[in-house]
Structure formats: C-alpha cells, structure tokens
Design goal:
The chain is of the alpha+beta class. It is built from 5 helices and 7 strands. It folds into 2 domains: about 25 residues; about 130 residues, Protein Transport Mog1p, Chain A, CATH 3.40.1000. A 7-stranded antiparallel beta sheet has the order 1-2-3-7-6-5-4, sandwiched between helices. The longest helix has 20 residues.
Length: about 190
C-alpha cells in the first residue's frame, strides 16, 4: 500500500482539499455569476473594478525629491519593487515608504488606521486627470496619506525624526502624494 492510499494520507488530503476550497472561496471576486442579480449600486461596482492611474516606480519620486519635500535627511533607497519603495536612514532615524495597492479597497486601509487610534481626515489631490480623494492618518512622528484612483490606491508613509505638528507632517506627505498624482499616467 503506498502513502497516497493509506487512511492517514487520505485524511490529510481531504483536509488539504477542504482548506484549499475555503481559501479559493475567500478569494472569489464576489461578482455574480451569469444570470444572477447583483446587489448594490451597479455604477459604483463598475468604477471600483476599473484600474486606476499608473503611478510609476517609487510613485515617480526620487530620493532627493523625497528629502526636499518632507525635510527628512540622510535616507537611502533600501527596497524597490513593482508595487513600492522603502527609504531608511538608521534604525531609529527617519524613514519613508510608497506602496501601491492594485484592486484593493482603500476603506479597509482607513479602518486599520482608525482602529490604531491615529487621527484621520479626508484629503484630495488635484492632478491632470482630475481630483483624487483619500485620507491622511497621523500619530506621533508619523503621517500617512492614502489616495484612491478607481479600484487602486497608494500610500505615502513618512516617519519623521523630529516632532512636528500633525498639520505640518501631513502637509509634507501630501506634497509627495501631489507629486505622484501629477506624474501619473492613464
């Protein structure tokens, strides 16, 4: 008898198949099958499924621009990939990141920020393709600005070395978001 036909192996296989089925069900699009009625606002659903603007590598912002717009110093690009970049100085120094979320709801991001106890306010950024909206979330030494573009959104997060007012921190991070939006491509 080989391992695949033993009772213990069949039980493990059944558990694995059940786990895979649950994982796939959790990853389903949530879209109705052909012939099924949809729920919610059809126009809103259509907009949320459209890809947003193309923001480019690192949000279209260089290390020098990042430091000039935020006032942080001594950061170096540590990580760069197709959906984000991370700049750091030292372990306890300032750092920044740009993250681009494709096909992900910005509301979930906002809920996480609110649940963390940070302050949150709505923001908007005017760009060549029109006005984009989102939110700023802040805490001691940190501000994050999240901007939505159709079904996508991006987040600029900056941790400052010196304590600044919430307004000043978020004004600087919003400048990064404005640069990203103004350099985006359709």
């Amino acid at each position: 008898m080989d391992a695949r036909s033993s009772p213990g192996a069949r039980g493990k296989l059944a558990v694995g198949v059940a786990a895979l089925a649950m994982l796939l069900a959790g990853c389903s699009s949530g879209e109705p099958e052909d012939g099924e009625a949809g729920s919610g606002n059809d126009q809103e659903s259509t907009v949320l499924r459209e890809a947003g603007l193309f923001f480019g590598e690192c949000g279209g912002v260089s290390t020098d621009e990042l430091m000039a717009l935020t006032g942080i110093r001594g950061v170096r690009l540590q990580e760069r990939n197709s959906v984000g970049c991370r700049w750091e100085s030292s372990l306890f120094g300032p750092h920044a990141s740009f993250s681009w979320y494709r096909g992900s709801p910005i509301g979930r991001e906002r809920a996480v920020v609110e649940l963390s106890g940070r302050g949150v306010r709505d923001v908007s950024v005017a760009g060549p393709s029109g006005e984009l909206t989102g939110f700023a979330g802040w805490g001691r030494f940190i501000c994050e600005v999240s901007i939505q573009s159709n079904s996508d959104f991006f987040v600029w997060s900056v941790v400052f070395a010196e304590e600044l007012s919430d307004d000043e921190m978020c004004r600087r991070v919003l400048a990064l978001a404005e640069a990203t939006v103004n350099r985006a491509e359709p």
